[in-house]
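Researcher: Structure for this, please.
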Amino acid sequence: MMDALLPYLAAGLVSFVIMMYVLLDGFDLGIGILFPFIRDKSHRSIMINTIAPVWDGNQTWLVLGGALLYGCFPSAFSALMPLFYFPIIIMSLALVLRGVAFEFRFKAAKESTLWCYVFSLASITAAFCQGTILGSFVYGVGHPTCTRALGCNTFSFFTGLCVVGGYALLGATFGVLKTKPPLQSQLVKLSKYLLICMLFMLVVISLWTPLSSTIYAEKWLRYPTILWLSPLPIASIIALITAWLGLQKKPDSAIPFLSVIAVFVLAFVGFFYSVWPYMVPNTLTITQAASEPKSLGFILAGAIVMIPVLSAYTAYGYYVFRGKVEENTFYNH
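Model: Predicted structure, C-alpha cell format:
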C-alpha cells in the first residue's frame, strides 16, 4: 500500500518545490524586470536592496526541484530534457549572468548603468524561458503537432510573456511592501497596470488551454466538472480585486503581495489539475515515470527532512530582514 503511494507523494513534493521556486525567485526576477521603468539610480539601488539578502537563497529551490525530478521520475526527466535543452540552457546562462550583473553593479561604479540593463535583460530572459517551457509542456508535449523545436509555437510564446508579466507583478507588489515613497508610489502605479495585464492574461490562458486540446476541454468544460472547478477562477478574480484594494488603501501592508501569491497558487492548482495524472502529458503517468519504490523511499526520506529545514531557513531569513529597506542598507551605486 505504501509503495503505491510513494509516486504520488514524490509528485506532491516536486510540485511543492517548483511552486516555492516560482513564488520566491519570481519576485526577485520581477525586480530586475521592472528596472527599465525605474529611472532614478537611487531607486534602483533600493530595489536591489529589497532582494539582496534573499535572492541567491531563492534559487536553492530550483536546484532541489531539478534534483527531485531527476531522482524520483527519471523516465520523465529523460523524456522532457531533450525537448527543453535550448530554453533551459538559455535560462541557466541568464541566471548566471544575472548574478554577475548583481555583484558587478555594486563594484563597477562607472559601468553601473550598463550592469543595470544586463541585470534587467537577464531577468526578463530567464522569466521568458520559464514561461515558454511551461507553455510547451502544456501544449507541445504529447500534442499531435509536437516537434523537437518546442518553444516556437504561439501558445508557448504567449505563456512566456505571461510569466514575465506575472513575475513583474510579484516584484512590484513585493517592492511596495518593502519600500517607502516616492519609490513606493511609483511601484503602486506599476502594480495596478500589471494587475490589469494579469487579469487579461489569465482570461486568455483560461480560454486558450482547453481550446488547444480536446483532452483539456474535456477536463475543464464538461458538465458538471465546470461547476466544481468554478471556485478557481472566482477565487483568482477575488484575489486580484483584493490586491487592487490593498494597493489603494493599505500599500504598507502585505495584502497586495499575498493576494498576488494567491493568484499564482490558484494558477498552479489549475495547471496541476490539467496535467493530472501525467508527468509527461499524454505519455507517462506519475506511476509509470516513477523510480523503484526503494529508490523513492530513500530519496523521499532525505527530502522530507530537508524541505522543512529549507523552509524554516527561508522563513527565518525573511523574518530577519523584514521591514522597509533604505538605499544604503546593503548595496548602493
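Researcher: Any notable elements?
Model: Residues 142-151 have pLDDT under 50 and may be disordered. Residues 8-202+278-320 form one domain.
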